[in-house]
Write a structure and sequence with these properties.
Helix content: 40-55%
Largest sheet: none
Number of strands: 0
Shape: globular
Strand content: under 5%
Distance between the termini: 71 Å
Structural class: mainly alpha
């Protein structure tokens, strides 16, 4: 009997609290993609992120987040990196990247040249 009461209580509470987590007017609470700044594209932001990656900025981001000291130039790069990453993810540029399907040599072969 206690088990049935507990299950009923959990169901009632979850139903009552279900509306608390969502944003007004949205069933999922997802605000959607944010527009990129004028003149920017996903490709241009990705290129700048790659440039900063090659300079070692992600390691500087980790150092800054753990309380390490940075030079003013490093701090500027970290701030730029974080801003670009927020733009890239906010615009959902990462969702535009499609992974190509692997090539299957059997299915992609020219079967007209096969002999029976």
């Amino acid at each position: 009997m206690r088990g049935c009461f507990a299950v009923a209580l959990v169901i009632a509470l979850s139903g009552a609290l279900q509306g608390c987590g969502g944003a007004a007017g949205s069933s999922s609470g997802d605000p959607g993609a944010r527009p990129l700044p004028p003149g920017e594209s996903c490709g241009s932001i990705r290129g700048e992120l790659n440039r900063l990656d090659s300079k070692g900025v992600p390691a500087q981001v980790e150092r800054a987040s753990s309380g390490g000291k940075l030079t003013p130039a490093q701090r500027s790069d970290v701030d730029k990196y974080n801003d670009l990453l927020n733009q890239y993810l906010g615009a959902r540029c990462h969702a535009e990247t499609h992974i190509e399907e692997p090539v299957n040599p059997v299915l992609d072969a020219d079967v007209s040249k096969w002999r029976a």
